[in-house]
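User: Hello, can you help with two protein structures?

Assistant: Certainly.
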Amino acid sequence: MSSSFLKVAFRILSFTIFTLAIHPSLLADVSSIERVIKQIPGYRPDIASLKPIGGGATNHNYILNLSNKRYFIKDTSLTDYELLGMRNQELLCTQIAASKGFSPSVVLADREAGVMIFDFVESNGKFSVKERESLKNLAHRIRDLHQSGIIFPSTFDPILTIKGLYGRIQTRSISLPPEVESKILPYIEHLGDSLQTTASCPCHLDLHSRNVLDDGKNIWIIDWECASMADPLFDLATLASIENFDESQTLTFLTAYYETPKQEIFDRLKLLRILSDTRWLLWCYLQQSASTIDFPYDLVAARYLSQCLQGIEAAKN
């Protein structure tokens, strides 16, 4: 038997072993990932195992095992970046954050394929925003980011963002709950200048527990596609909105961040939470109309609608 035949047979067998390690429903999606991971130093298909680990509202995630080395893979090939940002910006912001130790390092990235490969970070599984020490540690880490001196390439204004999202919804003729146009948007318009923000520091703008990894030594933040120069309190409001902080969590978090926060900080956070809830409410309706990812956008949108209306009523009283 010729050596060339053996080489071909080995490559076929190796690829079969590689693909069998992937869940059958995802086989159609991994060709672009395979093309990128071949560039990893030391990659061999006979020692490679790609395991899906679920994903978020805009991506699929995988763990790649190469013998004794592991990598985290983020696949955003199904993301409608018209709604959330551009791949170039996500990669650039992630690399900037990684250079300052806030994000795991990017090993490889293919902008066209929408694939990013990171050094794997093993979470200790102890982080929870419902636990006071975790919440305090996260507040300190976010404050470090805000004071890091990082310069992201874009700026973020929540009111302009909401107007942009609403404009796209109108363009796509997407139906919204009647309360959005009868109560929420008029209330935001009514508040006017009191909701103005200043793009004064580097912000993540998609902070929540699923984007935080605690390895016991460091708190890492992932998914930087929304990162921009923005108002630090709006960044905090984003976390409070997504995690739906109660009064106790809000007090713990703001005290850890500011040490002695003034009442005006609490009052302004409540208003900015309304903006954050509105932002994600509109975003969910847009994603539901465009995304092919299996994610309960409708249920999440309903939660933000409820939070937003409750926030408006509380602010009026």
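That covers the first. Now for the second protein you mentioned:
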Amino acid sequence: PAGRRWSATSAISSRCGRKEPGPTSAWASSSSESGAPKLGEAIPMEIRRERSKQLHMLSDRKKRQFYLENIDSERTVLFEQEEDEGIMYGFTENYIKVKHAYEPDLVNTFQSIKLLEVDRDGIMKCELVSLTINV
């Protein structure tokens, strides 16, 4: 309207029924004030748990299939410091978790390995193809 100065801030403020924010206040509005669409009813927790369980099972199957497809291939692994009952772990360049007999000289080194088999715990067993000590 004539004689009135409108700014984006004052237009928003008037629609929200709020005064313009000062230096210490913050904007907040519920979805009814903002015009955002409503999402409907929340999915019951039992259904969410079942869906989560199904997704985890699918993920485990796909991971196992990926591991099986890589058996007998040669990869590069970075062995980690972690040691558990004489076993060390690492990850290949394509994120396959591997395990090998613990050897302190292999910690934090890249090694060429051959992937052998998926153990019952879902981790790939490997053997060294060549020993390379990183300095």
